[in-house]
Write a structure and sequence with these properties.
6 strands, alpha/beta, 4 helices, Double Stranded RNA Binding Domain, six-stranded mixed beta sheet
Amino acid sequence: MKFFKITAVLVLLALGFTSCSSVRVASDYDQQVDFNQYKSFAFFKPGIDKAEISDLDKKRILRAIEEEMIAKGFTKSEEPDVLVSIFTKTNENINIYQNRFGYGYGWGWNPWYWGSGANTITTTSEGTLYIDLIDAEGKELVWQGMGTAALAKEVNRKQERINEIVEQIMEKYPPGAEKK
């Protein structure tokens, strides 16, 4: 019996660690746009100001986006070709795992069966980050990347986690350049 309890706890921990590391990403874009024309960027302050997250997290996200844009060959400019904006959503998930190691008799279902065991309750915060690229001249959305992932709670892991999320979103830009 002790073996099963330990195994169940280890499986839950393994699931917890693997689920925290995954990022679900998607992107959409205007198929009429030639993305090779964009060489410079700037942040779109009115859009960023609307994001409902702390200023510290905004700084972390913008820092990560800037690094990714520069790595893709963009330069930061006062007269940009493309404007970068962000939008965020967060959800808190409550997971209840029922551990039913109980007592009873006979085979099959029994209405008088009762079990013992503890329920494991965990909460996880999941966030979705949208990165919008807006044509600076026409002020139209030309590309949007979205990433959903579990959020880091520890302050020293936040920047690392944000970097990972932004990197995976930006792998989808430019359209058609994703890793296969």
